[in-house]
Amino acid sequence: MKYPLIGILLLSALAVASEVDVGTLEIVNGTLVSLDLGPTPYGGINGSIRLRLGSNEWYPESIWLLPEGRSISEFNYTGKTYRVPSNLSMTNNCLSSIYETSGMRAFKTSVKEGGKFCILAEGGKYKIMAEY
Amino acid sequence: MKTGSASYGKAIAAAFVVTLVLSFVVMQFRPEAMAVFGSKEPAHINTADVGIADVESGFMKEMEIFSDIGENSGIE
Fold it and tell me: Which domain does A73 fall in, by range?
């Protein structure tokens, strides 16, 4: 590559890792611990969405899951996301951006072709907001 | 004849320009990705409250939403 620095910059921008905290484990010397990992600390909604105004219908650009009584503008992006492996063939790998304010979290995902979406969020009751 | 430092200068200048262009593109399409620089979610376009979701950890639910703007309806 002619400009290695440019290549490094581009590669570092594209490097994305996904991780999830599935619990804690104590290792004691001389013992072997058997471990069954439980469910993920998040759940999800997979489906489709259409909005209608009179005889007009369209798909929104994105979906938010917000704690009840909260609005989108209160939340700031944490820089973190949830997603599932691509071999599950879920819409957009359920890539969901995590937002936060005052210890509360909101989640956002993009709506794809045909209004399809998949969003991941931590367990709880949320208001669904469509953004268009 | 080019010197090594001149080549590096060009490379750094090119990297700077690429970074600027990438930042501009990201700001246009994924503004939330720039939160690391202190920017907040931009003013909102339009939003519609389309219902309530009960998310359970470890479960994936299916949901079809068909909503009239201004009314919460059609959630199955």
Answer: 41-131
